[in-house]
Structure formats: structure tokens, C-alpha cells
Amino acid sequence: MHIELDAVCHTYQPGTALSVDALKEASLSIDQTDFAAIVGPTGSGKSTLVQHLNGLLAPTAGRVLVDGVPPKRQAARELRSHVGLVFQFPENQFFEATVREDVAFGPRNLSCGAVEAGKRVTEALDMVGLDPDLFGPRNPFELSGGEKRRVAIAGVLAMRPRIIVLDEPTAGLDPVGRRELMAHLRDLHYREGIGVVIVSHALDEIAELVERLIVMREGRIVFDGRPSVAFEREELLARAGLDPPQGVATLAALRRRGLDVAPGAVTIDDVARAVADAVEKSDET
User: Fold this and answer.
1) CB atoms < 10 A from the CB of 42, how many?
2) What is the pLDDT of residues 60-84, one digit of tens each?
3) Which helix (H) or strand (E) covers residue 281, if one does?
4) Domain residue spans in the chain?
5) What is the pTM of this model?
6) In whole angstroms, how far apart are CA 218 and each of 13, 49, 82?
7) 8 Å CB contact between 80 and 52
8) What's the CA dihedral at 114, 181, 92, 78 to 10 degrees?
9) Where are the beta strands (DSSP E) in the chain?
10) CATH number of 2-234
11) What is the tens place of the pLDDT at every residue in 193-236?
């Protein structure tokens, strides 16, 4: 599946005194091969942008194409089944008595029979690392924060989307919960072949994870490319109100002190290697 936003604009409450231009000529393409993050400060248009990917919002101007074709109005429901959107704190929307029943809600709305819905529930819980036999009968309100978040994501996965978009997926989780959830998102992409788009404002969390970084500022996309390229552009990040990942900031500080550290390192291991190589080179000279 390939989704393209072509010069999309979106205005909330147009023609009123409260009119807000949330998106300004945003052009973007997303497909199943992507493991991407959309980053930017609060109010930069991130959430508005991703709601155009699954038809929850329609453009004020511009167009959205799905596999090269504008989706028909009656196809919006089908589009939402292919592009799953997980909002912040999705566990606040639990309302069933058991995990299994809550995860089965989506498939039942797709008119799946009991056998098919059960199969999808088992499959989705497995995908997020929760044993269906152990967690299925449990009350979702009694789970830990990280487990609740994974159950909520399983509820979207049970609809078998080709792309899943998560808005601030680690919000409110402790460090252990954040690491576990990010590891499961990595598995969803590489093991299950699902396109993953993470909306975030924290570069440290996604620095070692994603392959593509989309930076937004004031409703516009100001960068779309490799994370390592964006992280080396201090002015870009500063203008977007973003702090570089800790490792990248450390290398920049070392360069300012005269150590000839090669650019491009993002992961902690790469940063450590880059520093070691620079020190070794310095000792040789």
C-alpha cells in the first residue's frame, strides 16, 4: 500500500475568527516498507498530518492518493482498516471486561465471525508479545501501563492494517515500558512486514530505531530523509524546537573542543566507536 499526500492543507474552523491553518502544502508518501518517525514541537501539525493518512481528516486543499488513486468517500472505512491509527493513551478507551473481548472489538466491527475474530485476537496479542492464553482472560484495567499500551495496539493490529501510525506511543510509560514497546514496534516492522510511523517530539527515543525522519514546523514539512543527516543539522533541529539525541549532541560538543569525530553516528555503539577512532587518530598524530 502506498499513500501520497500532495500539497495537502488543512484548516480547522475555516471562515471563522478561530480559523487555524494546521497543515500548509504538506507533500509526503508513506508505504509498507517505511519505518519512519514524524517529529516536531507541539502544534507543528504532526497529529493533523497523520489523520489524513487513514481518512479521519480530509484536506482543505490538495489531495490524498492511495496506490495512485484518490479514495472515494465510501472507501474511507476500508482505508482505515488498512492504515491503523493509535492515538495517545489509547488504553483510556478500554471498555470490555477482558483483554480478548477488547481486542476482538475491531474485527467484530469488520463483520468477522467468531472463529476469525478469535484467530485475529490470538495473532495480534502474539505480535505485541503478550501470551493470548495468559492475558486474554485478564481485565485490561488491571494490567501495567506498558501492557495496557500493547493491548491497545493489539486492538488495532487485529484489523490487520498494512501500516500502523502511533501518536506518542510511549507517553506516560516508565523507561522499561518505553524500551519494551519500542522493541515490539521494531519487530512489527521487520518480522511482520507492517509499515510503522511513529509520531514523537523526543528524538532520543527514536534515534536508534527508525530509518526515515520527517521533521515538521508550523504546519510544514521541513525535512524528510535519513535521521543521521537531520541530526547533523543543528540549525534545522533548533528552528523546529528539537533537542538532538544525547549521543549526537556529545559528538558535536567534542568537535567544538577540537576532536576530529566523524559525522553520521547515531546509535550509542556507533557514537562510542566514532569517539574511539577519533582518539586513536589523535594519538597517532
Assistant:
1) 8
2) 999 998 887 776 654 566 677 789 9
3) helix 268-284
4) 2-234, 245-285
5) 0.88
6) 17, 12, 29
7) no
8) -50
9) 2-12, 20-31, 35-39, 61-66, 83-86, 163-167, 195-200, 212-217, 220-225
10) 3.40.50.300
11) 999 999 987 788 888 889 999 999 999 999 999 998 898 888 89
